[in-house]
Amino acid sequence: MAQRDPLKNFLVELFGPAPGTRNGRTGQPTPEPAVGTYRTFAPVAVAAAALAFYAPQLADTAITDSVDQAGQFITTVHGYRWPLGALAAGWSVLDIVRWRGHRQRLALEAQLRQTTRHLPVKVTVAFPPGIGALRSAKIRLPRGAIIRPKEMDEFTTAVRGAAARTGTHTYTVRHHAHRDLILITRTPIEPDTRSPRHKALQTALSAGTIFKEPNVTVHSCDEDGIETGYKITFTPSLNSGARGFQAKVDEALAALAGDHESGRTWATAWTPAEGYLMMYLRAPLPTRVDHPLALVDENLRHLPYATGAANLSLYWDVSTKSNKPHCLIVGPTGGGKTSVIRTLLTEASRRGIPFLGVDPKMIELDGLEGYPGCAAIVYDAVRSAMLVRALHAEMMARNHYVHVKKIEPSQLPLLIAVLDEFFILSGKWQRLAKDEDEEIRAQVKQLDPLGAWADLAVLARSAGIRLLLGVQRPDASLFGSSSGNARDNFGTRISLGNLSQDGALMMWGDAHVGREVDTSIPGRGVVTALDGSPVDAQMWWTPNVDPHPNKWNQLSDEEKAIVHGLAPIESPTFEFFSTELRKFVEAERALAKRAREFGDAPEPSVLTDFSTDHDTVDDEVADAIPASAVTEGMVILLDDDNGHPVPVTVDTVAVVRDKDTGDVLETVMSINAGERVKTTVHFDATEVVMLPEPDTVLTA
After folding, report:
1. In degrees, to the nearest 5, what angle opens at C-alpha 151 toward C-alphas 146 and 152?
2. CA-based Rg of the chain, rounded to a whole angstrom?
3. How far apart are CA 148 and CA 144, in angstroms?
4. Are residues 360 and 428 in contact, defined by beta-carbon separation less than 8 angstroms?
5. Is 573 helix (H, G, I), strand (E, B) or coil?
6. Segment 319-352, tens digit of pLDDT
7. Of 84, 271, 341, 452, which residue is the least packed, with the fewest Cβ within 10 Å?
8. Range list of β-strands (E), 343-427
9. Prediction pTM value
10. Pure H helices in 509-578
11. DSSP code string of 296-360
12. Is 198 exposed, middle or buried (0-12, 13-18, 19+ CB in 10 A)?
């Protein structure tokens, strides 16, 4: 085995092998490289300068040896010692520079051969080549040389990895195929003055695949130089125009940007057609807003109820010109639905708009009974059906008045009708339709409250009647199959708490909206903005306005001040166009007065064992939902042979839908009625089922 000779290797590398040298292993001639043999003459100049500086010592030696002529020559050379020294120094520097360029050319040649398998014709580097890093280079390729893109990328990576050691420059490698030439240029890297937030946004977008060619630029800064806005450009795509995609990107960008120093939150404005979006700051939503005592909106047909981003007040437009005439409120028990209803009705009262309502639970709206502008609050299921039919008669009478008097509908006085806990009320009507008392069944059938309500939802707008509906969860069968586009008329929508995916689709038409509401903040939800889009909002807090001492004494001084400040100076005036509604309100007020004067309630008693005595189940249940919304394992209430509601667990659910429209036609449930005994129950499209607890799903 041959031993390694460091000196020999250095000299070969310094001066290069002679042309035509054979390969030691194969014996074949080595191809002549593009980079020629390095030749240096600096040692000659250094030797001459050394001879000149040491001439006296050499002359003395020459005289001693009786070499007179050599001594005279050495003495003459000594006189040129400084010019020769300067020449040797300059020549040495030049050779060092040439040596550096030679090394760079050798490296480029080796990188090109290893990545592209091409031997360059000529390699030229800039002079001087640069001591720390390559400045520029030109590589001449054989005529017609083909370099694949992958090979070119590998060569570029090799050049940048070997040459860009300082980190202050970047290299651009361009292949001019038509000229058989590769050009390498160096440009200084500008100092990265971007903020950490700017870097995080750009790095995340560049590393991901959600955008093609994303670029983040600073759009605005505050007085202290803190960035307050960014513009993100990208290549438009199908995804960039989808609201679901935009919602996910908005959430991700806000998380990447983090909390801003000003305390404001990040928002986005998309322009997908032009390929950019803007990130900007807006004031954060407040965590609590007490009902303002001053009129926030001077328009008496705008009923404000919440505060949105940037302290924008959101309202329900009840004017005749409104394209969102009716209001739908969705929220679980304890989610703040009652407070929102109180806010809207007290705002209506102080603007001269009367109202009446239905409260099947007897606890949600009772505080509004007797409030200025309140015509009546109905609790009984039969009388609630009578009220809906009377409202239908009022609507028809108003339309007839407009037709005969030839007036504009906007001249009619407004009236707001509230139906809270609509599914519970609907369930009670359905149970009354199956009541043992034939007279009650006939009365409910004649009143047809569900059909009358569906007509009101569609036709009441032009009659000046506005509907306010409260439910615990949205459902496609909200108004029954005969309601047409009834739900679409409820353009003003409010959702409190977190919706399910199906609920978000039915409420907002988007499976992502309203599903991540911060439920730790009372009154936080999603509402319809002025432009019709869903936005986050903080509902106003309106305390209970019930003047009864048991309620009033529970309020703080601040809450009492709110109630006093909201009370209108003059009570709204009731104008009835139908005899049916007028007589109903008069009778309901008389019944309410009698109940207040002579009414009594039994004292509470101890509840017996529920598992052994089904007769103790109260008729007043916690909640009701459409039959089509029931899922397997849910506990519902069904009537036994004696007509008493008992809890049962649903084993299976089959929902039959129309093939064309997707509307519910029938719901079939399998109920476990005992050991190996199952009962099948059929529900039509409009039927609801009662729950023993507020909208709770229990597994079997």
Report:
1. 85
2. 45
3. 13
4. yes
5. coil
6. 988 888 899 999 887 788 889 999 999 999 999 9
7. 271
8. 355-358, 374-378, 415-419
9. 0.67
10. 549-552, 557-566
11. S---TTEEEEEE-GGG-EEEEE-STT-S--SEEEE--TTSSHHHHHHHHHHHHHHTT--EEEE-T
12. middle
Integer Cα distance of 497 and 471 in angstroms: 13
* C-alpha to C-alpha distance for 659 and 682, rounded to whole angstroms: 19
Alpha helix stretches (DSSP H) within 117-242: 149-163, 196-207
pLDDT at 613: 45
Which residues 6+ apart lie within 8 Å of 2 measured at CB? none
User: Would you call 245 exposed, middle or buried from its count of C-beta atoms within 10 A (0-12, 13-18, 19+)?
Assistant: middle
* Minimum mean pLDDT range among 267-276, 397-406, 443-452: 443-452
265-271, strands of its sheet edge to edge: 215-221, 227-233, 276-282, 265-271
pLDDT score of 616 more than 50: no
Q: How far is residue 234's CA from residue 225's CA, in Å, rounded to a whole number?
A: 26
Q: What percent of the chain has pLDDT over 90?
A: 31
Which residues are bridge partners to 648 per DSSP? 636
* SS3 per residue for 84-107: HHHHHHHHHHHHHHHHHHHHHHHH
The predicted-structure confidence for 138-197, as pLDDT tens digits, reads as follows 989 999 888 998 999 899 888 888 765 666 778 889 999 889 999 988 888 777 888 999
Whole-angstrom CA distances from 265 to 29, 262, 279, 287 are: 73, 9, 10, 14
Per-residue pLDDT, averaged over 208-227, amounts to 91
Q: Helix, strand, or coil here: 489?
A: helix
> If you count them, how many residues does the chain have?
700
